[in-house]
Design brief:
An eight-stranded mixed sheet has the order 2-9-8-7-6-3-4-5, sandwiched between helices. A four-stranded antiparallel sheet has the order 10-11-14-13, with helices on one face. Strands 1-12 form a two-stranded parallel sheet. By secondary structure, the protein is of the alpha/beta class. It is globular. The relative contact order is 0.16. The chain has two domains: 123 residues, Aspartate Aminotransferase, domain 1 (Alpha-Beta Complex), CATH 3.90.1150; 234 residues, Type I PLP-dependent aspartate aminotransferase-like (Major domain) (Aspartate Aminotransferase, domain 2).
Amino acid sequence: TNLGTNAGTGKIDWDAKLVQSCSYIRPVQKPVNWREYAYPFVYGQVDDELFSHSEWRDCARQALGMRNFSTMVGDFGQHDDPMLVNYICSRSLPRRGIKARPEQILVTLGAQNALYLVAQLLVDQSKHVVIESPSYPDLRDILLQRTKAITALPVDAGGLILDEEVLRRADSVFITPSHQCPTTHTMSASRRRQLLDMAARHDLLVIEDDYEFEMNFLESPTPALKAQDNDGRVIYVGSLSKSVFPGLRLGYMVAPEGLIQQARALRHLILRHPPGHAQRTLAYFMALGHYDAQIRRLRRHLAERRRVLQSAIDAEGLFSHSAAHFGGTSFWVSGPDWLDSRILAERAMQDGVLIEAGDVFFGRDTSPLNYFRLSYSAISSERIPEGIARLGACMRKLKP
């Protein structure tokens, strides 16, 4: 059977058929074959040597055992793996200062899936939304599908700069207070209190993406904003993929039971539920202590890589805007005003160095071009100095 002929484009005008276009989406660009580059400063990827393959494999086998098989292979309908939800309730959330019941938790296909569900349920053309600038590009694109009334407020070393006149007119605000995306700044305690006070005064919903909360090098990291929420107006989103491996695509949402019921029903229409085997394997990985060991291993290696990268940046004269030295997996860097980081990324790639141009983290009409992101999650400490030296050489060649 020649499927190619039947699947051909023919004479159909697909642009005319579409009722919604996604051509406006500007994702962060990274090559699929990034592992083939000698100096991959790419975000959201994993160093294979820092992951315990054997322990994950053992948990996957255990999840396939007869005791778990009937639970794991069934259709959960609108429900989640109770073993995983129990661990999130009893271990993950208390670390962030959050108390929640199982009926207040929804397992999602990563944090982005949770943000999408929230946007579908709470945002439409009649709603005014506030986001950070710069911010997570996919969140902006998700919200643009629902409304054009989006205001981006700037961030500084203390996190989102609060503007009560703007927030007073808004219906919801999406923030990353623990490690702001992409600057990695942590929102100050005073601003957290001010934001919650403003939210209460103006009936504002707060959606907290607890971005990279596990990648904190402090003994006592700042509790989640949700931990200070006394009236249930903070919707909490967490990721389990970033601290295990990105391809796992598991996260969760914490919210009042009524909203979780609606999100669960919407998720059912989109994908029913995240795969049972992945949920149960992760549940065992957590319950047997492998997850905690993984976090400790990552923190130890990432702290060292951060130190090496900071030294290399200082040696090359690049100016980092990532002032916090206690967490995250990347640096947000500003080059000279004349720099176009898109061109720098292209030239550096030719020399084996991968970076992420920063324009996509801003709105289309407000995109400064001299910012870029350097992540150290997928590159060894030994390769960092040479990679930054090559990047510096590329930048000097571009100087007018």
